[in-house]
């Protein structure tokens, strides 16, 4: 029986936290060099992250080659020129129903908007520091706004609604939302950092995911899924890993992803992205 060779990789899609970034939130010289070598061969690079575009851009600007940014778990696709070619936000009427259904978890929820400066992240007075409030105060205080009532800020469609905190606290929210009136209109995506006792539940528009956005971008570029390599480490990467012809899981990946049959690389502190590019693109 004939065995057909794998198609050459024309697009590399890379998660950010836990993948391209090491544990010090740095892009290593080895990863930089591998990305430069790939682009020298005509390979396109996309960073595909759960971070907001404004948060991810500071890392994208450090990469010495053109990078397409797919941010907020697929809600935005931004070209290297800064042009946004795709938006998939959560309709505000749906966001309102999500907030109503999860009112008992109001101290662990943030609503994220695509606006500059303060108001990108909105939380309600009474939010607790073990939830998103603590992270955003430490890293994005200039973008955070507190309000008396979250529903009152839904004058425009948010990017998403985000729940976060200790797994034992926030994991029951998934079942609550899957039985709510908004269930058929949202996509739920988990990011789990169990060693840090933190889980994030992103509530996106129905059908919005890293995989959907990556498929849109690949189709826009005339690239077949068999010519795409995706590298990730967490549950919110699953859709894009399943889309790609070559799916690579980081050595530091979140428990529970090993059974998917993905290729494996080294950890983010061992230049796992560089190793994957060297193995599956440059060779």
Structural features, described:
The structure is a single chain. By secondary structure, the chain is α/β, with parallel strands linked by helices. It has 2 domains: 151 residues, 3-Layer(aba) Sandwich (Rossmann fold); 114 residues, Hypothetical Protein, Haloacid Dehalogenase-like Hydrolase, Chain: A, domain 2, CATH 3.30.1240.10. The protein is built from 10 helices and 14 strands. Strands 5-4-3-2-1-12-13-14 form an 8-stranded mixed sheet, sandwiched between helices. Strands 8-7-6-9-11-10 form a 6-stranded mixed sheet, with helices on both faces. A hairpin with a 4-residue loop joins strand 3 and strand 4. The radius of gyration is 19 Å and the shape is globular.
Task: Quickly list its features.
10 helices; 2 domains; disordered N terminus; single chain; 6-stranded mixed sheet; alpha/beta; Hypothetical Protein, Haloacid Dehalogenase-like Hydrolase, Chain: A, domain 2; 8-stranded mixed sheet; Rossmann fold; 283 residues
């Amino acid at each position: 029986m004939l065995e057909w060779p794998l198609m050459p990789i024309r697009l590399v899609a890379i998660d950010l936290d836990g993948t391209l970034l090491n544990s010090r939130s740095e892009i290593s010289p080895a990863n930089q060099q591998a990305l430069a070598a790939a682009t020298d061969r005509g390979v396109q690079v996309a960073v595909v992250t759960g971070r907001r575009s404004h948060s991810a851009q500071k890392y994208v600007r450090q990469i010495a080659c053109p990078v397409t940014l797919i941010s907020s778990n697929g809600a935005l696709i931004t070209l290297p020129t800064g042009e946004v070619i795709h938006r998939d936000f959560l309709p505000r009427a749906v966001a309102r129903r999500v907030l109503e259904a999860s009112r008992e978890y109001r101290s662990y929820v943030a609503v994220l908007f695509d606006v500059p400066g303060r108001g990108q992240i909105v939380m309600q007075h009474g939010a607790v520091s073990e939830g998103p409030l603590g992270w955003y105060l430490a890293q994005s205080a200039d973008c955070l706004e507190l309000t008396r009532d979250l529903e009152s800020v839904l004058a425009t469609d948010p990017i998403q609604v985000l729940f976060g905190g200790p797994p034992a606290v926030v994991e029951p929210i998934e079942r609550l939302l899957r039985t709510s009136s908004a269930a058929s209109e949202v996509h739920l995506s988990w990011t789990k950092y169990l060693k840090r006792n933190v889980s994030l539940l992103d509530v996106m528009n129905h059908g919005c995911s890293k995989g959907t956005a990556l498929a849109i971008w690949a189709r826009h570029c005339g690239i077949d899924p068999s010519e795409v390599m995706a590298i990730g480490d967490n549950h919110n990467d699953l859709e894009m890993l399943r889309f790609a012809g070559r799916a690579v899981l980081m050595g530091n990946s979140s428990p529970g992803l090993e059974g998917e049959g993905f290729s494996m690389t080294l950890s983010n502190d061992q230049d796992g992205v560089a190793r994957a590019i060297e193995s599956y693109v440059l060779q």
